[in-house]
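Input (structure):
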C-alpha cells in the first residue's frame, strides 16, 4: 500500500509541475512572443497614454462621438469587473420600459423620424455588457449628429465609418461590425 501512495504522490507532483507550472508558463511565453498586443489586452494608446482596449466597450456620451451599445455591467454600466447582461426577459415591464426609453432617446439625439427603425444594438445591451462593436447600421443612424457636432460634412464622416467596417472573418464567419473606440479615434485624427 505504501508503494501505491508513493506512486500516487510522485504522479501528483509530476502532473502538478507539468499542468500547473510548465504548461501555463510555456503558453504565456508563446502568446507574449507571437501575439504580444493581444496577450496584453489589445490596449489602445494615444500619445503614449493607454485610453482603453479594443476588446471592452466604453461609454461615449459626447454628441460629437459615436455611441456604442448600452451596458448593464455594473451600476453605471461598462464596469469590466461586473460583466453581465440585465437578464430581463422580453416580457419584463422594466425591460420594456428601458428599451422604449432608449429608442426615444436615440430618436431624439439623432433627430430620427418616428418611421426610422432604430438598430437593436443601440438599445439592447450585449450579454457581457461590454461589447466594443456596433453594426454599420447603428453607425449610419448617428452620422448626421456626429457630423453636425464636429463641423464635418456627412460624407466625410460616412467615409470614415466605411473605412472602419470590419468585414466577416474569411468572408463567412460573424457579421460586419465597427469598433466604436477605433471609429471615434479615427474621427479625432481628422483635421477640419
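Output (sequence):
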Amino acid at each position: 500500500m505504501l508503494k501505491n501512495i508513493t506512486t500516487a504522490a510522485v504522479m501528483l507532483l509530476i502532473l502538478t509541475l507539468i499542468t500547473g507550472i510548465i504548461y501555463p508558463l510555456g503558453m504565456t511565453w508563446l502568446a507574449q512572443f507571437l501575439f504580444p498586443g493581444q496577450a496584453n489586452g489589445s490596449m489602445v494608446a494615444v500619445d503614449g497614454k493607454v485610453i482603453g482596449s479594443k476588446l471592452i466597450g466604453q461609454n461615449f456620451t459626447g454628441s460629437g462621438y459615436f455611441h456604442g451599445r448600452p451596458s448593464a455591467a455594473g451600476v453605471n454600466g461598462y464596469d469590466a469587473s461586473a460583466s453581465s447582461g440585465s437578464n430581463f426577459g422580453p416580457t419584463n415591464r422594466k425591460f420594456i420600459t428601458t428599451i422604449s426609453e432608449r429608442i426615444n432617446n436615440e430618436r431624439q439625439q439623432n433627430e430620427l423620424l418616428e418611421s426610422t427603425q432604430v438598430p437593436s444594438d443601440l438599445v439592447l445591451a450585449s450579454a457581457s455588457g461590454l461589447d466594443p462593436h456596433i453594426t454599420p447600421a447603428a453607425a449610419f443612424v448617428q452620422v448626421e449628429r456626429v457630423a453636425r457636432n464636429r463641423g464635418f460634412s456627412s460624407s466625410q464622416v460616412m467615409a470614415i465609418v466605411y473605412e472602419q467596417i470590419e468585414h466577416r472573418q474569411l468572408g463567412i464567419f460573424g457579421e460586419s461590425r465597427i469598433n466604436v473606440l477605433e471609429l471615434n479615434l479615427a474621427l479625432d485624427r481628422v483635421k477640419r
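Notes: The CA atoms of residues 122 and 132 lie 12 Å apart. The mean pLDDT is 90.
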